[in-house]
Amino acid sequence: MRKSILFGVLSCGLLAGCSGMGYAIENYSGTKPVQFVEAGKTFRIFDKPAAGRLMITPSLGAAFAQGATFGAASSAEMTYQIASQAYLDSTGRKCEVGDMKLVVQPQWETFYTCS
User: Fold this and answer.
1) ω before 33 within 30° of 0 (cis)?
2) What pLDDT digit, counting tens, does each position of 30-72 carry?
């Protein structure tokens, strides 16, 4: 009985990760990443200006070195939100970061509006 419960929990976790990866592939496939450094951390940013959203993730090296996270979920969200705003500011566009959504650890999606 315990094995079946453990299998069910693991399956749900794997499916959640798979659905997040599927979302990332479906929505950002073909979007060329931009390397961006903020506060000494290197990020990869997949920007879709026409859709008003971007996906931000740490550099591959940082993701592996730090266990694919920059800390607890709430502090990670703030780190990614600050980096997303700094990136948008660097583009010269007048944009403001809005909602953040965890796609799959450590990838966050940022929705933004520009004036």
Assistant:
1) no
2) 999 999 999 999 999 999 999 999 999 998 665 545 544 455 5
Query: Three-class SS string for 38-88?
Result: ECCEEEEEEEEHHHCEEEEEECHHHHHHCCCCCCCHHHHHHHHHHHHHHHH
Helix, strand, or coil here: 106? Answer: coil
**Per-domain residue ranges for the chain?**
2-114
Sheet of strand 95-104: strand arrangement: 34-38, 41-48, 53-58, 107-114, 95-104
Tokens representing 89?
Answer: 């500011």
> Residues of 64-75 as b/e, b for ≥16 C-beta within 10 angstroms?
eeeeeebeeeee
Residue 54 phi, psi dihedral angles, 5° rounding: -145, 160
CB atoms within 10 A of CB 42: 14
